[in-house]
Structure formats: C-alpha cells, structure tokens
Amino acid sequence: MSDGRLPVRRRWLRWTVGVILTLLVLAIGWVTVRGIGAVSDLQQISKSATQLKSAIGEGDLERASRLSDRVAHHAESAHGLTSDPVWQAFGVLPWIGPNFSAVSDIAAIADDVASDALIPVLDVAGRLDLASLGFSGGRIDLTPFAAIEPPLADASATLSAAEERALTIDAGATLPPLADAVGEMRSAVTQAATVVGSLHGAAALLPSMLGAEGPRNYVVAMQNNAELRSSGGIIGAIALLHAENGQISLVQQASTLDFPPLAESLPLSESTVALFEDRPGRYLQNITSIPDFTEAGALVATRWQQRFGTPIDGVIAVDAVVTENLLAATGPLTFGPFAVTEDDVVSLLVSGIYSAVPDPAAQDQIFAEAAGALFGAALSGTDPKALVAALAASAEQDRIRIWSAHEEEEAFLAGTALGGALPRDDVSSHVGVLFNDTTGAKMDYYTDAAIRTAVGRCDGEPTTRVSVTWTNDAPADAGTTLPEYVTGGGTYGVEPGTVRTLITVFGPEGATPSRVDREGGGGDDDVQTALLGARSAVQQEVLLAPGESATVTVDFQGTGAGERLTEVEHTPMIRNPEILREELRCTP
After folding, report:
1. Using CA atoms, how far apart are residues 523 and 386, in angstroms rounded to an integer?
2. Contact 563, 224 (CB under 8 A)
3. pTM of the entire structure?
4. For the segment 263-277, what is each residue's pLDDT rounded down to a tens digit?
5. What distance lies between CA 457 and its chain's CA centroid?
6. Which runs of E-coded beta strand occur in 520-584?
C-alpha cells in the first residue's frame, strides 16, 4: 500500500522545477525593473545631451557643467543597472538576448562618453569659445589652440571608439523601440564624434594653416552643382586667400577662362584615366571629377602655380550650397544687379543667372563679384558664431574639401571627412555613387537621384546591391524654353533638354561586381571599370530626355560585401539623393 507520498526522486524533481521557476520569475522581475530604470536613464541622457550642446554653443558654462553632471549621473546609473551577471546572462539567450545586449552596450557607451569625453570638452570650452573659435574681424586668435589640442585629442579618441562600438550593435536583431534607441544613440555619438573630431582638427591644424609659422596661400575652388562632378560640380570660379598670423584676406580672383586647356595632361592616377581619360589633367573644370580629393587638390594647386607663379599651400573646394549656409550667417547680399537671401541665392547662382545674363563673360564677372561680396561679408562684420556654424553645417554636408601641400597636415586631413579621401572600411562598409555631367551644360539643376542598398547572400555569396535611380525633372519643353547655355544647345551631341551623365558606383573594399544592370534611359551601353584603391568601381553613361528616369543596379560579391552596416557616399547635389535600405532579393 502507498502512504500517499511521492517517490523521493519525483519530490526532488518537483522541488527543483519549482526552484528554477521561482528563480526565473525573480530574474525576469529583476531585469524588468532594472530595464525600466536603465531606459529611463538613457532617455534622460538624450534629453540632457541636447540641452548640453545648446549650453556649450551659447557659452553658458555654468549650465553646461550642471547638465554634464546630470548626463554623467544617468550614464553611470544605466551602466550599473545593465552590467550585473543576471542581465548579462539574459544577453546570451536566443531571440531576446540581443535586446538585453543592445541596452547594456548603449549604457556602457554613454558611461564612457560621459566620463572620458565630456570633461575634456568642457575644459576646452572654458578656455575658448567653441562656437566662434576665437574668430573676429577676419582674424582668428591662434594663442589658445596649443593648450586645447591635447584634451580635444583625448575626447576625440573616446568618441571615435564609442562610434565604432555603437556601429557594432546589431539593431536589426532588436525590437522596434530598442532599434530606434540604438539608431538615436548612433546618430548622437556620430554627430558628437564628428564635431569634436573637427574641433580637434582645428586645434591641431589652424595655427600652422593660418600662418602662425609663416604666411600661407590657399586656392579656393568654387563648384557649380548645376554641372555635376564627383566632388560636387564643375569649377566655375577660383580665388586666392592669404593667411598670416590668423588674419585672412582675399587677394586675387580668376575665372576658368584664365586656365586654357593644356596640350599635355598633368600626371593622373590609373583609376582617373580609366574613368575620365585625360580630361581632369588638361581641363581645370574637370579636376573635380576625380573621386579622391587628395589627388584633385594637388592638381588645382599645380594649375594655379603654373598660371600665376604663386606658391600654393593648400586648396579648399566648396560647392554652391555653401553660399546658402553662409548667407544664413551674413544676411542678404548684393552683387551686380542682384540682391539675394539664403532662400534664393543657390537658385540664382546655378540657374537664374543664365536667363538674366546670357553672356558667359558677364556671368563670370558676376560670379567674381558674388564671391568677393560673400568673402567680404563673411570676413568682416558677421557674427562669428553664426559664421562658424555655417561652415560646420557645410562640412557636415560634405560640401567642403581641403588639401594641404604640407605633408603632416595632409596626412591629418586625409583621415577626416574634410580631406575628401575615399572612405576606408573598418567597422562598417562603404559604397558610393558619383555623378559626372557630360552634357556640357547646366542641366543638373533639374536632376534628382534615389539610392537604394540591400545586403545579404545570393548563391551562397555575401552580396551588397547598390541601385541608383537617376531622373531628369526638366520641363517637357526645356529644349526650347531654357537658355542655350543651360541646355548646351547640342554643342556636345546631346539634344537640348536631354541630360547625359556618367554614373559611377563603387562597392565595399575587396568586393567585385557580379552583376550590372540598367533599366530605362539611353546612352552608351559600354561599362567602364576601375579600381579606386581596394574598391571596384563600375561606370555607365545614361541619357535622359525630360521626364525620363533610369536605374543602374550593381551587385558586389566577395570580401567586404554582405555587411549589415553599409554606409552610402555620394556626390553632393543641389538636392541630395534619397537614400533607402531594402531587403535583398536575389536575381535568377
């Protein structure tokens, strides 16, 4: 007969299961409570960080210090709440694990940034107005920069490391709210890394580049995005700046008419010749077709030195949209018969002027007057903080590129966005789309682009797909209603109103093109290929009548392809392309 008791083994089993379930419930409760607290801390960090940026920009260091303390407190709290063994154990579980790992990674990044980057930046802000960089009356006080360079170097290194860590978080494996939080953190860290990196670059380079150790001369090449080139547009105007002991002055202006084509090309890289033949080496206007500004800048300097004999220390390339940003700082501007504001200056310079002033020589004169008026306004009387903010916005939009003839400076610049070098793949991979007009006109005022990327595996191979849709939005009667200078008038074999463009697509480092496809549009079916460093580039010509679109698609496979984190580089345009991420669908 049974005494009603379960066998010992079964009692131990029930007891064990009960204990496990109890511990699991407690653990879930533990991480839930701590997770709510951590998320609340991260939300407070985001809010306070925005306020901190404003306080530093306004020079309110007392408020900035309080906000910094608040950020540090919440960051330390969030890190502590998500770094205990129970939380870490949940991080290795399937499906839900990436959500816990993402929160703990974000918290750890925030804690590092708060403790190792905020303090050096606030220390620098106490010595130099970061919003103006000591700029006043066309001069920058170079004295403080030697002292602020080391702390900015530390802060920049911390933020760069934080940016790399943020990019490794697999946001795609997390729930939507956390994916949004990861995206916000990445954006915030990337923005901070860019800003502080630029400040560090300024502290390291400005003293020597602005003539603290001797006078400097810089060529400024102004690009017109209505006739696209890889780095922004055709060079339409060119000038010489002189810098000495922090004082900057405009000393000479020229036009492309002062630089006739060379009978023999300057030396070019093999990749440049493969894509554009020798045109960049013979025509000043085409130098900015070169994708890598470390090569293009040197050629611009050589052309100026050959023409005018002035030794050149560096080259600065800017595009037409920079004028919009600058007028936001200077206010309305008058030159020639025109009065412009930030709202209409770009449309005038890249489109309206050709109807109002048909004579190309007169156009060049007005462009020179516009440049002189803009430099004059920027270098004298403009609010320094507004001016620095305008230049920072332009740099962030990739509309300013700088090359230095001095080896150490150029090595530093080449590692920054301002240097205009081709990107390097590290934590994330990069792809790019470059546009170069061959219409011989100013029709790119009417063009638009959309760029789509997709990553995954096709036929067992890691694959990165880049698709670019190119559209001619000119009016149907553009060939007869737009000025001949805008349409080209058929001079280079293109029907007026039609746009002819070389579209270059480059893939991740080490990957090779496995498929090239084009839908829509006309043009030469030939495909040019080149190696841009370790990157394969594919180039096709596209011909579009008004209202037409074409899509060029390139699949890259092999090393470097198929990476989830894929960043897109592109030619700066008047209206920048829409960039979308799609699911990869393999083509039979």
Report:
1. 45
2. no
3. 0.83
4. 999 999 999 999 999
5. 28
6. 527-532, 535-544, 549-557, 566-570, 578-581
